[in-house]
Write a structure and sequence with these properties.
single chain, 0% strand, mainly alpha
Amino acid sequence: MERPVASVPRAVVLALALALAAQIAWQALQPGPQARAEQLAAPAAPAVLRTLSLAEPIVLAQLLTLYLQAFDNQPGISIPFRELDYPRVALWLATILALDPVGQYPLLMASHLYAQVPDRDKQRTMLEFVHRQFFADPDRRWRWLAHAAIMAKHRLNDVKLALVYAEDIARHARAAPSWARQMRVFLLEDLGEVESAKILLGGLLVSGELTDPKEIHFLTERLEQLKSAEKSSPASRN
């Protein structure tokens, strides 16, 4: 269970804060600042950080999160997100998650903050980061992969990538709500895979997995619409 900073002994918080302050002070003593994104150094290995955390890895994870959030807005420096080294940002986020696996904030930062830059390659880097991290805890992290699927479809116009994400949610996130596990049906339709969508919908309806009458009614109507559309298409009449 995640502990708030307020519940940690003051001596521990003070020690960690002093360590972080010492690093920031050392950087402040260096030659005049320049707005260079590559100044974001790689984090220490999670095993090393756990040792330094004085048995309080969650507190250290929170401090590292604050440091990463503040990096783009240092005194005299303003670094746009798009200029940051995204593989290194992903490494920081992964390190924070390693210290606090239950925490969700690094995944929120990846999908809602860093993935919003107008750079397709960097967007993909963040979406793939979310995808990799999803497998460590699918039942807690499905919502971030669902958001990644939406971004892949609407921002990257990559429906096939969105389908990969949606299928992994359906396979691995048993605690995800049905709408998230059924995203793949509608993505298959977008790809023109109507027959596959019909088979998948039919399987869902007969599996007994769905229990909400409204949901069953909605998907039954959708299946009938797919069948009707297929019958009325020119290809089906030839």
